[in-house]
Amino acid sequence: MSAESTGTFPVKRGLAEMMKGGVIMDVVNPEQAKIAEDAGAVAVMALERVPADIRVDGGVARMSDPEMIDGIQAICSIPVMAKVRIGHFVEAQIIQSLGVDFIDESEVLTPADEAYHIDKMAFDVPFVCGATNLGEALRRISEGAAMIRSKGEAGTGNVVEAVRHLRSILGDIKRITQADEAELFGWAKDLQAPLPLVQEIAETGKLPVPLFCAGGLATPADAALAMQLGAEAVFVGSGIFKSDDPSPRAKAIVEATTHYKDADILAKVSRGLGAPMTGIGMDEISVKYADRGW
Amino acid sequence: MNPAPPVTGPVVGVLALQGAFSDHLERLAAIDVDARIVKRPEHLDGVDALVLPGGESTTMSMLLDTSGLRDPLSDLLGDGLPVFGTCAGMILCASDVLDGRPDQHGFDLIDITVRRNGYGRQLDSFETDLDVAGLDAPFHAVFIRAPRVERVGAGVEIVAEHDGIPVLVRDGTCTVAAFHPELTNDTRLHELFVAQLTGN
Questions:
Q1: Which of B39, B56, B99 minimises the CB distance to A18?
Q2: A212 touches chain B (CB under 8 A)
C-alpha cells in the first residue's frame, strides 16, 4: 500500500470544500459552541470576544487562550477554527499544536506585522484569510490560504461591506474570463497578483479555493443574499450571540444558507426570531478592520 | 446549469443540503449524466439514483428533518433506490455510527459500523493511492476528517482498503466511500456507480 501524505494543499482545500453551503459561527465559550453545533453549524470559530465587543473594548486583540480553545474542542464534534493576528506566525504555531482544524489569519485581531502575512505553506493546518478584492484574495492564496472569505466589516451587523467585497471579487473574476491572453498580464499587474493564478481564473471562472462571505451578516436574509451573490458559505460572528435569542436565529441562518434561493422558506425561517443585533452604520465606526491586510 | 442531458440515461439526484455537492455534480456532468440537486421533497421526482456528498453529517442530519426530505428519502432508499455515499454520506448510510451525536439519524442501508472522525482531526487528514477492485490503475483518494470503518457485516463487499481498513464498500445498490472521489478529476468511481444503474 502506498504512503499517505498529510498537510498537502488538496487536503487543506478539501476541508474548505466540505464546509460549502454551511454556516461557521463565532463562539466565545463551550456553551455557545454547543448551541452552534446543535443549530447545525459546519464549524465554530473559537475566540475570546466577538468582533462587536472587540470594537467596544478597543485595545490589542490577540489569539485566544489555549485553555479556552481546549474547552471548545472537548465539547464539539464539528471542526474548530481559531483566529491569529495577521503576520503572527508564532500564534499560528501555537494554535496548530492544539490540533485546531482551521486557522483564520484575521484582520479582526490587531495586526502583528504591517508588511507580511504568515507563510501559510509552512503549516500543515489549513488557513482562511480575508480579502476585500481579487488582488488581495490571490496574494493570500499564493501564500497558501486554502479558503478566502470576503471581509465585510466584522462586528457591525451591517451587510453593506460584505456585499461590496463579494461584488468586487466576483465582478473582477467575471471580467477576467472575458479578457484575452495579452490582457491577463495587465490584470496580474493591476491586481498585484501572480500571473499563473490570474491565468487559472481566466480558464476556470472561479478562485482556486472556496470563497466564503463574512463580516456583518446578522439575519437569514443576509446569509441568503451572500449566497445568491455567489458566496459558497457564510461566517456569522456577532450576528448570532449578540442577538436576543441566539439558538433559533442560528438554526434559521443555517436553513437560509441551504435554501438561499427559496423565498418561501426564507420567509418561514425569518419569522419570530426576536431582535437581531442592533448594528452600526459605516459612518459611525472609527476603525475599519477591512483596511487591515496588505 | 448542466449540459443537455442524454435522453435515455439515468437521472442522478445529488443531496444538496450542505457540503461538496457541486463537486459531485461536476464529476457527473463530466461523464454526461443527467444530475440534479435535491433540496426539497419534490426534487426526488424522477430520480433513479442518489448521491450523498461529503460535508458535516450533523448539519445534514438536521437539514434532512427541516427540509422534509428525511421520510420520502428514507422510503425511496428503503425500496432499493441505488445510492453512492461519500464521507458524511457514508455515515448517513451506515447501520451503526460511533461518536455521532445522539440526535443524528441515518438511513441504515448497509451493515457497517463507522466511527465519525475516526482518523482524527484535520491534521490527520491525508491523501493516498488506493487499489480498487474493478479498476486497472490505482485511484488517488483524499480523506478529510474521514469516518473509519470498524466493522463490516456479512454480505458487504470490500471494494478497497487502506492499511487493512475498508474504505470503499458495497452491498447491492448501496456503495459508500470514506474518502472523496468528488474532489479529484478522476471520474472512474462515478462511472462504476452509473454503470451499475444501466447494467453496463
A1: B56
A2: no
Would you call A151 a catalytic residue per the annotation? no
Chain B residues closer than 8 Å to A17 by CB: 20, 23, 54, 144, 180, 183
pLDDT at residue A1 in the model: 45
H-helix or E-strand spanning residue A186: helix A181-191
**What's the CA gap between A237 and A240, in Å, rounded?**
7
Does residue B2 lie within any of the structural domains? no
Please give the grid coordinates belonging to residue B187: 471520474
- Asked if the Cβ–Cβ distance from A258 to B17 is below 8 Å, we say yes
Strand partners, A18: none
DSSP secondary structure letter of residue B121 = S
Could you report the predicted ipTM of this complex, rounded to two decimals? 0.94
Q: Inform me whether the C-beta atom of residue A15 falls under 8 Å from chain B C-beta atoms.
A: yes
Q: Which residue of chain B comes nearest to A3, CA vs CA?
A: B128
Please identify every stretch of chain A with a pLDDT value under 70, giving residue numbers as ranges: 1-2
Of B57, B145, B139, B187, which Cα lies nearest the Cα of A22? Answer: B57
The CATH number for B61's domain is 3.40.50.880
B7 confidence band (pLDDT: 50, 70, 90): low
B106 inside domain: yes
Q: Which domain holds residue B128?
A: 11-198
B18 falls within a domain: yes
Residues of chain A contacting residue B87, judged by C-beta atoms under 8 Å apart? 18
Number of domains chain B contains: 1
Say if CB A125 and CB B123 are below 8 A apart.
Answer: yes
Chain B partners within 8 Å of A15 (Cβ): 122, 125, 144-145
Residue B3 maps to a domain: no
